[in-house]
Amino acid sequence: MTYSETVDLAHMLAMPRWRHPTGPANKHEVRQFRRDINHQVGIHYHPQDSPYDPLFRWFQKRHDPRSP
After folding, report:
1. Is 30 exposed, middle or buried (0-12, 13-18, 19+ CB in 10 A)?
2. What is the C-alpha R_g of the chain?
3. Which domain holds residue 29?
4. Is 68 inside a domain boundary?
5. What is the value of pTM for the model shown?
6. What is the Cα–Cα distance from 17 to 20, expressed in whole angstroms?
7. Could you read off the pLDDT of 18-54 as tens digits, one per residue?
8. DSSP secondary structure string, 5-61?
9. Is residue 13 part of a domain?
10. What's the structural domain count of the chain?
């Protein structure tokens, strides 16, 4: 079952730090995002700069200063 992981991930993505970041992402922010997912959700997430990684795309969209 993945219910608990889904709830944990939704909780983490709703955190103000990740939902409304204060500026563009840097390497430190990407590492912290990965650590938070690993810790909060309990998966070993290794983001790839790829259009096929939905979590990384979500992260980039939130950190793009041109996004509304």
Report:
1. middle
2. 12
3. 3-63
4. no
5. 0.78
6. 6
7. 998 888 888 899 899 999 999 999 888 887 777 788 9
8. HHHHHHHHHHSHHHHS-SS---HHHHHHHHHHHHHHH-S-----SSTT-HHHHHHHH
9. yes
10. 1
